[in-house]
Amino acid sequence: MAEDDRDTRPDPHDDLMARVDEAIAAADPAALEAALEPMHAADIADLIERMTPAERRQFLELYADGIDGEILSEIDESIREEVLEQLPRAVLAEAVREMDSDDVVDLVEDLDAPERDEILAALDAGDRMAVQQSLAYPEYSAGRLMQSEVVTAPEHWTVAEAIDFIRSEDWLPEQFYHVVLVDPRRHPVGYVTLGRLLASRRDAPLRELAEDSFRTISAFAEEAEVAYVFNQYHLISAPVVDRDDRLVGVITIDDAMSVLDDEHEEDILRLAGVGDDSNISDSVLQTVRQRVPWLATNIVTALAAASVIAVFEGAIAQLVALAVLMPIVASMGGNAGTQTLTVAVRGLATRDLSRANALRVVRREVIVGLTNGVIFGIIMAAITWAWFRDPGLAAVIGSAMVINLLVAALAGILIPLGLNKLGADPALASGTFVTMMTDVIGFLAFLGLATLVLL
Fold it and tell me: For a tag site, which of 27, 229, 369, 447 has the least CB within 10 Å?
């Protein structure tokens, strides 16, 4: 009973949102500021993203002075430019100065040159140079992801020297996890966690406290590679080096996990055929533009399946039961293919599926497809016999089910592997090809066997 009571209690977040809506409707900036004061920057950014363009404009008119660097860095890039255009220039300049260099890079990299130059002009000369250095690296590289503010110490220092240095400097980033040890040529040779630094004797040499997990990342490495390394080796931060192995920045776990989240979201959207940048805040026109190409592609694949049905038009006319049962074969194949495809795309993304184990995984999926085909072939044969009292038709649909589920398993694993080998994103086009294969083979197997056996 108590659990039911808890489930029906009003959500405090809903009450907070109602207060925000009331303040906006009343055009009361003081009430809006009071309502937003307890909210985290990420929650305020979510609130801005969920608004319509008209609501967002009204909100920013009332709350422009409250938009700081933390909120700005949390706003989704799909509406970020719209927000930047509506902010007073003084507010924007102050917000940008509060941000770390990696957040500024993320903010300006997709802007047109005039807007980018305006934001960079608000930065101090040193910060502006750091951002421009990151922008010089390829898009979607570690160089774009890193922040230039790195806490370093010579490898021969002691704990006392490092602590005294940290306490005396006022330029340090708001959050950092390691002190990076460098040699005289500024090559990173190790790092020490802050926890171990503070827990050690003041006369302890830093090199003796270095972590075994130390590894560097090339500034030219792809973002996906960075996310994989952080996830695989449980890193908190990692130094970034240039082609000469000199330290140029550091990547922290929040940025790496953000990339990993973006990669997973992109794969899901591509598998669903809605593009890789669809967002709940997109307009009707934007959404239509993203989905039309994929729907047009599906028309082509559907026509391929329809052409198979057309070949057996005479057989369907003679035995109407074929029209009743054939969608079942295609639907089961499509679902089975999607199951295998999802596992394969995820395995390729996480590198659990590679050339080394591809044959074993293909063999497993073939056995699974064959087993499922036999199970559901028997079930459908029994249902068909009970429904139509035709043992021949029951045998046909049972056999077609085995064939299509086997083909679905093969298509679901081989198509993404093939696209990956060709250098294409397996999440982008695999779903279309797998659906076409299961539809065409399903109709061909069922209608072809029916023509041979029953007519």
Answer: 27
